[in-house]
Specification:
alpha+beta; four-stranded antiparallel beta sheet
Length: 158
């Protein structure tokens, strides 16, 4: 699946309330984030299908969104859950951690999908497609944003 191309050549809107000069604004960068999240979620579904007929008690949680107190948080698909049949009537999935559980014999199952955005953190600007990232994160993931307009953001009182 090819990476999305930049959609616009527009100038970014001014960003207000930014506290750090170490931030960059990536115009339309949210499209890239969504693209790689969809790619990873598809890989997780395929991985679960391969394990469907086994008694493997774990699963990976796909990328999901949680809204608490009016703020929205996105969690990448890197969380391991274990099925607990004794919890409730139908059982439930308990959080185990971000790393492969110690009791998993990796020689008996296919390797889990790698999240190419693991470690990537950004802030979406409003409800638009622009994102704010730190310069260090942008350097680490710059290949994902080739061809996109990137602007240094300085402290602004606008």
């Amino acid at each position: 699946m090819p990476r999305p191309e930049p959609q616009s050549k527009r100038e970014p809107k001014p960003v207000t309330g930014v506290e750090s000069a170490e931030l960059c604004l990536v115009v339309d960068g949210y499209d890239v984030v969504l693209h790689y999240e969809r790619e990873h979620n598809t890989a997780i579904k395929a991985w679960h299908e391969n394990l469907k007929n086994s008694d493997f008690p774990y699963k990976l949680k796909p990328t999901h969104t949680v809204t608490k107190g009016g703020k929205t948080y996105r969690y990448p698909g890197t969380y391991w859950l274990r099925f607990n049949p004794e919890s409730g009537v139908k059982g439930k999935w308990d959080y185990v951690g971000r790393d492969i559980p110690d009791d998993v014999d990796m020689s008996k199952i296919p390797a889990p999908p790698v999240n190419r955005l693991d470690g990537f953190q950004c802030e979406r600007v409003g409800r638009g497609k622009d994102i704010l990232v730190t310069k260090s994160v942008l350097r680490q993931f710059r290949r994902f944003f080739d061809g996109y307009h990137v602007f240094n953001v300085t402290r602004s009182e606008v």
